[in-house]
Design brief:
- The chain is of the alpha+beta class and 362 residues long.
- It has three domains: 76 residues, Arc Repressor Mutant, subunit A; 174 residues, GAF domain (Beta-Lactamase, 2-Layer Sandwich); 96 residues, Enolase-like, domain 1 (2-Layer Sandwich).
- 48% of the residues lie in helices and 18% in strands.
- It is built from 15 helices and ten strands.
- The strands form three sheets. It has a five-stranded antiparallel sheet with strand order 7-3-10-9-8, sandwiched between helices.
- A hairpin with a 4-residue loop joins strand 5 and strand 6.
- Helix 6 packs antiparallel against helix 14, helix 7 crosses helix 9 and helix 8 packs antiparallel against helix 9.
- It is elongated, with a radius of gyration of 26 Å.
Length: 362
């Protein structure tokens, strides 16, 4: 922005953005004079200030009418001032109560993250995202192997957080049901409660130190390495809900070709993880609002990210870090979206430390 704006211009800009978020229609000086600034500013005064705001790059004219809409820079300024506005406690309390009710009876990391994405999508009319911690930060609860066919094994890994991962393993040799049971019993007996990455490291150490007993360890080592390969251990569970909300947006907001590109980007979960990791610092608890998503992924142009880190499954701030987020168009109800993301992130943290509201666990 070339120059700072006056207090009056800021008030007018805020009123324009509030009106545009609510109606989706360009805002005229006459409409503002009759509503937000009745008996305060004349239509002529507002019209002159709107011209100044347009020169500052904060208002745009979508077509030849008297109405204006906020620019991307205006939305950035608007969001930056939200924390300084006095939002009544009642709406926030109602929002938190609604979220608590939505999470009632939900337990286990998978269920919590799935519900998180659904709740955020419903509250924002955007896309709700919940990304769990990398598998390597979770703890092993149980592992089971089943023989599907010759040289084909189903591995089921259950973690302490409630995550269940299954994987079909293709071996170059066959293993009997007895061998599979022996390998599973060995892993469960020796490594239940271990960090998943540590299991791999410890198995490698035991093989090195106990070569004479390697034949007894070999089945367990091979099955574990295939069930939890190095790249899989670092993958994060991604839950997405509300993509249909973008499809229902007016075509004037998102052109059809660009919408297809956005939807394709949302379907690539690894790209979403990279996008969030690029902007969200797990060491900070605050909610961030990001407008320049196209700098990380051109297909995300026109969308806004509202996200916060969430500590899931542990009270250790350095481990089990995930993310909760909303992705939506610039025209959204920012205050409620920011409040929802921040509250759910805190709720997941309280779940990790055993401090939950009664409605959450009832």
């Amino acid at each position: 922005m070339a120059r700072p704006i006056t207090t009056r211009q800021r008030e007018i800009l805020t009123a324009i953005i509030d009106s545009y978020i609510t109606t989706g229609e360009p805002v005229s000086s006459g409409a503002l004079a009759q509503t937000a600034f009745a008996k305060t500013f004349s239509s002529a005064t507002i019209r002159n200030e709107m011209a100044e705001l347009a020169d500052a790059g904060l208002l745009e004219q979508p077509h030849t009418s008297a109405g204006r809409i906020p620019s991307a820079e205006a939305f950035r300024l608007y969001v930056a001032t939200l924390t300084g506005r006095n939002t009544p406690d009642a709406p926030r309390t109602a929002l938190q109560s609604r979220i608590d009710t939505s999470f009632a009876g939900i337990a286990g990391e998978s269920a919590l993250l799935e519900r998180t994405s659904h709740v955020l999508a419903a509250l924002s009319s955007g896309v709700g995202l919940a990304i769990g911690a990398a598998a390597s930060t979770d703890l092993l609860e149980h592992i089971h192997f089943s023989r599907l066919a010759s040289q084909r094994i189903l591995a089921v890994v259950v973690t302490r957080s409630g995550m269940v991962r299954d994987r079909v393993l293709a071996l170059d040799h066959d293993l009997s049901s007895v061998q599979l049971e022996t390998a599973a019993n060995f892993l469960n007996e020796h490594f239940r409660g271990w960090n998943i990455d540590r299991v791999r490291t410890e198995l490698a150490r035991r093989v090195e130190q106990e070569r004479s007993a390697y034949r007894q360890l070999s089945d367990a080592v091979e099955l574990w390495s295939r069930a939890i390969p190095t790249d899989t251990a670092q993958q994060q569970a991604v839950y997405i809900d509300g993509v249909a909300n973008l499809i229902s947006l007016p075509q004037s907001l998102l052109e059809r070709d660009r919408l297809r590109q956005m939807l394709a980007a949302l379907e690539e979960k690894q790209r979403l993880i990279e996008l969030l990791n690029a902007y969200i610092d797990a060491r900070q608890d605050s909610v961030r609002v990001i407008f320049d998503l196209d700098q990380q992924d051109p297909n995300m142009a026109g969308l806004v990210l509202i996200a916060a880190p969430a500590r899931i499954g542990t009270d250790n701030p350095e481990t089990a870090l995930g993310t909760v987020a909303i992705i939506g168009p610039q025209r959204m109800h920012y205050q409620s979206a920011i409040d929802a993301v921040g509250y759910i992130a805190r709720l997941l943290q309280r779940n990790a430390t055993g401090e939950l509201p009664e409605s959450f666990t009832s």
